[in-house]
Amino acid sequence: MTERQPNEASEYSRAPAILVVDDDTSICRYCAKALRNVGYQVIDTTSGLVALDHLRHQVFDLLLTDIKMPEMSGLELARQARALNPGLAVIIMTGQTTLETLREAVQQGVTSYLSKPFEIEEMRLTVAQVLHQRAMVLQKVKLEAIVHQLELSSAFNRTLSLSELCGEIVRVTNSEIGCQFGYFLLQQPDESPRLLMGQASHPQLNEAGWQLLQETYQQQQPIQTTLKLAEADHNVITFPLRVGGAMIGSALFDYTEALPSAQIEGMMLLLNQAAAALNNAQLFTRVQEANSRLQELDRLKSEFISITSHELRTPLAVVLGYGIVIQERSEPPIRTYLDRLVESAQRMKEIIDDMTHLRRLDTRQTELQVEPIVLDELLYEVIDQMHGLAQKKSQTLSLATPPDALCTLYADRAKIALVLMSLLSNAMKFTPAEGMITVRAWCETVQAVPYEHAYFKGTLQPGPWVFVSVSDSGIGIPESHLQRIFERFYQVAQSLTREYGGTGVGLALVQGLVALHNGHVWVQSEEGRGSTFTVALPQRGL
Ligand code: ADP
Predict the structure, then answer these.
(1) Are residues 129 and 274 in the same domain?
(2) 21 lines ligand 1 (CB under 6 A)
(3) Please, what sign has the CA dihedral across residues 234, 237, 238, 243?
(4) Whether residue 161 sits in one domain with residue 99
(5) Is residue 10 assigned to a domain?
(6) Do 324 and 460 fall into the same domain?
(7) Is there a contact between 12 and 134 (Cβ–Cβ < 8 Å)?
(8) pLDDT at residue number 4
């Protein structure tokens, strides 16, 4: 027969501790030895008084005691022992078992009994059963405590505001240990520590309290002591605040009645939940702060652009106006210089116009003047305007669609022209000399979602749409940049190298103007081979 090893039972993390008491020395030693042999930690004594002394200094799991002893009866010993350790299991060994003895035994919290004389195996079996039952009860109590703590801590998820959360933690702690105040010291690397109070009405924390919180943070252990605050002595307890093994701070609460170790353990569990909630609230606050800083920066940037473009517009109009007047009347070589001056001033005007458009889009000041546009006419007009530039770079600019295949579009003519010119101007800029720039257009009633075409893929509302694409045989765009090129001021090449010039505003404007028409822009590109930008616009407008 295999003996049941106490350590076999996974419910005990260490070998259970047993106190054996019997005034009969041989029975006492015999039982103790038999239990030791199977791995229990055993202390044995023939005296009830000595047994009580052991119980005061060591935590036992089980008391195995004779009932009839000269100094003190086994039942009296059981009563006093359970007063010291309420979770202690007790087995009494008795010669005659009367109903009266049994009733009294139950009253003293005796868990089981052994009738003398007993077989050693019977004794071991009873001990193992009682310890198993006790472990089950302890586990249940522990689980109930965890559930209770989790229920309490659910209150911590109600808010992401740090001050409200601290108030909530103190409220819950008050229901557990009756605290009146609570302080939280949150510490983050590279940041100065932050002290938060459970309520605004709390007394100010003094230096001794601050030291206690620091000590708890460093030692990562609770500390129980007294603290003089607002002229009164308080019993206080501190807890480390830990999230996933990392310390984030410490907390301090007062309490009124002595805290048993089980309650302190429960509080540590609760404070773990509180620490997680505090950490989340801290992260949330930081993200909010960073966000508002970014918004402020964005506002300042827009303001700067708006002021600068407004202030540049007037003097530039004067330069351009007089430049053109003198240009018309001048002779070479002055005329050549003036051509360059007017050209540069025109370029400056375009940049300022782009900025102004973008600003108007931001402030929702852009209004659409929708009118019927005969698509092929608009395309010829735009291509015509850009032809000169293409010729300068010996590029071929062509429309690859038969005009009769095209329809009438309802949109803002000037703004759609601006969009197409912007795309064409990029295509020319990022295509080397003698490259090809091709404009395609088609009108189609979208029936299946998503819509798929060689030059456009995306989710479009079913209905009639107009598509215009600009393809080039230029440098292309690396895939990792494709998502970002529509952001304002974003350029693939480092702006400092200024290889291609530009401001990074064009595509942001294209996207803004197309979105205003409820349309979409799609880009497809291959590095070193070229890019295609396609604009999809609802044919019948908004
Ligand atoms: P800009 O042309 O003034 O730099 P855009 O907003 O029009 O600003 O374009 C943003 C960036 O997208 C450009 O700097 C370039 O890196 C890339 N890009 C736009 N169009 C093309 C294109 N046709 N071919 C290659 N890269 C392009």
Answers:
(1) no
(2) no
(3) negative
(4) no
(5) no
(6) no
(7) no
(8) 38
Q: Within this chain, do residues 39 and 122 fall inside the same structural domain, yes or no? A: yes
Ligand 1 geometric centre to CA of 507 (Å): 7
Element (H, E) at 456: strand 456-458
Per-residue pLDDT tens over the stretch 5-31: 444 344 566 789 999 999 999 999 999
Which CATH number characterizes residue 405's domain? 3.30.565.10
Q: What is the pLDDT of residue 494?
A: 66
CB contact at 8 A, 187 and 193? yes
CATH code of the domain in which 116 resides: 3.40.50.2300
CATH number at residue 209: 3.30.450.40
What does the DSSP 8-state code read for residue 337?
Answer: H
Of 72-86, 329-343, 405-419, 490-504, the one with minimum mean pLDDT is: 490-504
| Ligand 1 site, residue 458, Cβ cutoff 6 A | no
Q: Is the CB of 491 under 6 A from ligand 1?
A: yes
* Mutate-to-test residue for ligand 1 from 421, 430, 525, highest number of ligand atoms within 8 A of CB: 430
Are 259 and 140 found together in one domain? no
Distance 491 CA to ligand 1 centre (A): 6
Range of the domain at 249: 155-288
Confidence of residue 332 (pLDDT cuts 50, 70, 90): confident
Tell me: do 41 and 130 sit in the same domain: yes
426 lines ligand 1 (CB under 6 A): yes
Ligand 1 atom at minimum distance from 504 CA: 8
Q: What is the mean pLDDT of residues 436-440?
A: 97
- Start-end of H helices in 220-366: 261-329, 334-362
Ligand 1 centroid distance, CA of 399 (Å): 21
Highest mean pLDDT among 92-106, 158-172, 298-312: 158-172
377 has pLDDT over 70: yes
Q: What is the DSSP string of 58-87?
A: S--SEEEEES--SSS-HHHHHHHHHHH-TT
Does residue 382 carry a pLDDT above 60? yes
Choose one of 348, 507, 513 to mutate for the ligand 1 pocket test, by most ligand atoms within 8 angstroms of C-beta. Answer: 507
Distance CA 534, CA 482 (A): 14
Instruction: Tell me the mean pLDDT in the region 69-91.
Output: 90
In percent, how much of the chain has pLDDT > 90? 63
Our answer on whether the CB atom of 428 is closer than 6 Å to any ligand 1 atom is no
Number of domains present in the structure of the chain:
4
Is there a single domain that holds both residue 248 and residue 356?
no
| Ligand 1 in reach of 507 Cβ (< 6 A) | yes
Q: Which atom of ligand 1 is nearest to the CA of 533?
A: 23
